[in-house]
Write a structure and sequence with these properties.
The protein is of the alpha+beta class. It has helices at 2-6, 36-43, 47-56, 72-80, and strands at residues 14-15, 18-19, 33-34, 62-64, 67-71.
Length: 81
């Protein structure tokens, strides 16, 4: 399932060559609101996985027009389970 493919993404994994802090602390360059593409890069999964998690209700997001936006807080809650 989606949560299985996204599990374990909180600890020290590199994103774009930058170490990702553990403990739910976003990197200094992480925006407060992300597109599915940006969230996918942050989580190191595909954009399709992020959209599937949104559509299944596992990941909270807002749809503005035809585009989803995901808050950093929603990603942190999702990662905590």
């Amino acid at each position: 399932m989606i949560s299985d493919s996204l599990s374990g993404m909180t600890g020290g994994a590199a994103v774009g060559g930058e170490p990702q802090p553990s403990g739910g602390v976003p990197p200094a360059n992480a925006p407060g609101v992300m597109t599915p593409s940006e969230a996918a890069q942050y989580l190191r999964v595909s954009e399709e996985d992020v959209i599937a998690a949104i559509e299944s209700g596992e990941l909270s997001a807002r749809k503005i027009g035809s585009a989803y936006r995901i808050s950093q807080q929603a990603l942190d809650q999702f990662l905590q389970g």
